[in-house]
Each structure stands twice: as structure tokens, then as C-alpha cells.
Write a structure and sequence with these properties.
about 200 residues, alpha+beta, 7 helices, about 15% strand
């Protein structure tokens, strides 16, 4: 595992600890991860994340969002109706609603149901790729950048959990959400200016 991914995982776990949250991480079955690699072309960094820190029960809690990471045991089921057919076959071309065979869901909003997904057609030299989201409940999926890489996605989640420590968990209203988004923006810009510019988090 390279240092960027290791540092992002560590930052996420530390942010949970500081908040007194207790997510459950494990270690994915290497045989399953290899199978997912072949079927869905999962990039190296994401595979290493599953092998090192499979998010068995892991959800961020902030005034604006709750992101639940998909554990390896549920991974294929999460893809059905998206990049996989209900029978588990990979799409051969974009669906009528715009979902592409190369969009692989790695998390979703526990508040809104919106998916967070890798675009494995954009794998870079580091063995990573961007993370996008799209609004559910619409006629067509319109992707919006969340992070320039999966490692950066974990880092941004860590930032949001850390910043949320200054907010009352029992008073997550619209005003709190607005102030939170303003507070988290500069921190995200430090690490991922492109994600900040895309505006999903702010």
C-alpha cells in the first residue's frame, strides 16, 4: 500500500476516533477481491483498501451528509441495477438512464440514497480513479466530481467528520448545514481543489 492511501485511511480512522464514533473495519477475502477486480476492473488502491480496511459497518455523520461505505460482502449486490444487470452481468453499453458500465458504486448517502462511485475508465498511474456522485430519483444520472481519487475521497470524508466535531449532532438543521459547508470548504481546497470547485461538499 502506498503512503497516500495509508495516510488517508489513517486520517479517516482517527477522525472517527476523535468523534467517539465506532465504525467496524475488517479485511476482505483476497479471493473475493481478485474476483471483483476481474469482473469490475477495480483499481489497485481500492482493492488494497478492501484488503486492509474493509468497511464492514462504516458511516460518516455530519450536518450535511452521512456517507456509508460499501463492504466487500455487499459489493456485487450494490452494483445490481447499475453497472450490473439484476442477473449480475456487466452492462455492455450505457443504460437508458445514462449509467455507465465503468461506474462502480463504493458508497452511498444514508440520507438521500445518492450513490458515490468510481469511474474505472479513468484509472491513473497510481492505480486510482476519480469518485463521483449523482442525484437519485431523476430521469438521467448526471455525475458530479466528489474527489480526484479514491484516496482523496477517504481524506475528504475524514475532513468532514473532523469538522463536524464542532457541531451539535442533535441539532442538525439547515443553518447548521450551511455553516458546516462553509467551514469544510477551505479544508477540502487544501487537498483537492478540483473537488472543491465541483461544489458537492460545499
Amino acid at each position: 500500500m502506498d503512503s497516500d492511501l495509508a495516510e488517508s485511511i489513517s486520517a479517516l480512522k482517527e477522525s472517527f476516533q476523535q468523534r467517539g464514533l465506532s465504525p467496524t473495519f475488517g479485511a476482505a477475502d483476497p479471493t473475493l477481491v481478485e474476483s471483483l477486480k476481474k469482473q469490475l476492473k477495480l483499481p489497485r488502491r481500492y482493492r488494497e483498501f478492501l484488503l486492509e480496511s474493509d468497511p464492514i459497518d462504516t458511516e460518516t455523520v455530519t450536518p450535511s451528509e452521512r456517507v456509508r461505505l460499501v463492504p466487500s460482502s455487499e459489493f456485487l449486490e450494490e452494483q445490481k441495477g447499475f453497472c450490473l444487470t439484476e442477473e449480475g452481468e456487466l452492462l455492455v453499453s450505457p443504460a437508458s438512464n445514462g449509467w455507465r458500465p465503468t461506474w462502480v458504486i463504493v458508497a452511498h448517502s444514508a440520507l438521500l440514497g445518492d450513490p458515490y462511485f468510481l469511474d474505472v475508465s479513468e484509472i491513473d498511474a497510481e492505480g486510482d480513479c476519480p469518485v463521483y456522485t449523482a442525484m437519485s430519483g431523476t430521469d438521467t444520472w448526471k455525475p458530479r466530481l466528489c474527489a480526484s481519487s479514491f484516496a482523496m475521497f477517504l481524506r475528504i470524508l475524514a475532513i468532514t467528520v473532523e469538522v463536524a466535531s464542532d457541531f451539535d449532532e442533535d441539532d442538525f438543521d439547515m443553518d447548521n448545514e450551511s455553516v458546516f459547508r462553509e467551514s469544510v470548504g477551505p479544508r477540502i481546497r487544501e487537498y483537492d481543489p478540483a473537488a472543491m470547485k465541483a461544489g458537492h461538499w460545499t
